[in-house]
Amino acid sequence: MDLSYILNELGEDREHYFNAIAPPIMQTSNFRFNKVDELRAAFADEMSTYIYSRGLNPTADILRKKLAALDGAEDCLVFNNGAAAIFAAVLANVKAGDHIVSVSKPYSWVQRMFDIILPRFAVTTTYVDGRDANNYFNATKPNTTFYYLESPNSWDFALQDIATIAAYAKQHNITTLIDNSYCTPLYQQPIAMGIDLAMQTATKYIGGHSDTLGGVLSGSKTIIKKIFDSEYLNIGSGIQPFNAWLLIRGLRTLPTRLERINRTIKEVLAFVKIHPAVKRILYPFDESFPQYALAKRQMKEAPGLFSFFVQAESRQQIVTFCESLQHIQMAVSWGGHESLLLPKCAGLQDAEFDAANPEHQMMRIYVGLEEASYIIADLDQAFEKAGLK
Ligand SMILES: *Cc1c(COP(=O)(O)O)cnc(C)c1O
């Protein structure tokens, strides 16, 4: 399907709302029925019609259609945030006694679900270094029913060979889910590679303006309906109409914003890479990246985020660097208009800092929509103030 068609027309039914270009925000909790039999049919299958906005809602449905098409999937559900999408997807597909194999260092709240919540229901998880697909296969037990992937990881960008892992999982009746937030479906198509459930947080690139949260889960009609009928309706974490509307608006400019970010990040990277205080960078589309070949094979582009390691002698030097930035802001998240930076050592006390541990000297930058020169000048003066040279 044509990308322009998906973003501008698919799912929109303008004749039904006065030919307005922008869709209405259907801010309603419930929908009326004229016939008892229609009501009966709706009760029998909540996915067949509009009945109550904890289930389907017309504004959210426009978004669902577009996002499913972007993922090349039969259907999709949109949640109030990405964490909820993952939670519902995993919960719907495991039962007591099951075992999950997950990539190591998944998104923090996913790790919490695996470590704290699921063990209460006798579901256990083994973490593996996903850079070698064999680690997934070797960790698989007779009761393994779920593989969790995140490729690339959003800090160190470690990749998994998606097609290889998906093929093995299919043979062994194991459900697969990938967190595709870094690439978005524009730059990586996990469903076409055989993954059952493609997840992305819409909070980041789709929203694009740091003003709403959202989470996307795409897959076959069967698996999506299974999640809708129980977890989606029960947890009640579906996207709200106004947030769905903001995400539709964000989608219109998604390719344009990503193209711009792709250009800017290359310029910022070129500056950071040769800076004397920088020991190493991590970016999937840089030739120095250990999994460069795999990245080139399964991703179209590497937008927005890269990490770098500075030659800092103390934690204070990194603190001075971060606090000297005038325009790049220190904040979690990414995907908005604004450039952001996060130092890994934020979790450490001064005394815990070890200049021999590269992790402690690591920072992650998100390159937003500003001019490259503006971002570079800000980094340059902060390096200078921190005595990093
Ligand atoms: C932000 C993020 C999530 C969670 O999404 P929310 O919308 O914040 O709940 C999941 N995975 C990755 C990689 C993220 O960056």
TrEMBL record:
GO cellular component terms, semicolon-separated: cytoplasm
Residues annotated with N6-(pyridoxal phosphate)lysine modification: K204
Biological process according to GO: transsulfuration
Highest taxon in the source lineage: Bacteria
MF-aspect GO terms: carbon-sulfur lyase activity; pyridoxal phosphate binding
Pfam families noted in UniProt: Cys_Met_Meta_PP
Cofactor(s) the record lists: pyridoxal 5'-phosphate
Keyword Repeat: no
InterPro entries reported for this sequence: Cys/Met-Metab_PyrdxlP-dep_enz (IPR000277), Cys_met_metab_PP (IPR054542), PyrdxlP-dep_Trfase (IPR015424), PyrdxlP-dep_Trfase_major (IPR015421), PyrdxlP-dep_Trfase_small (IPR015422)
Keywords attached to this entry: Lyase, Pyridoxal phosphate
Entry keyword annotation includes Chloroplast: no
PANTHER family registered for this protein in UniProt: CYSTATHIONINE GAMMA-LYASE, TRANS-SULFURATION ENZYME FAMILY MEMBER
UniProt family annotation: Belongs to the trans-sulfuration enzymes family.
Official protein name in the record: Cystathionine beta-lyase
Origin species: Lacibacter luteus
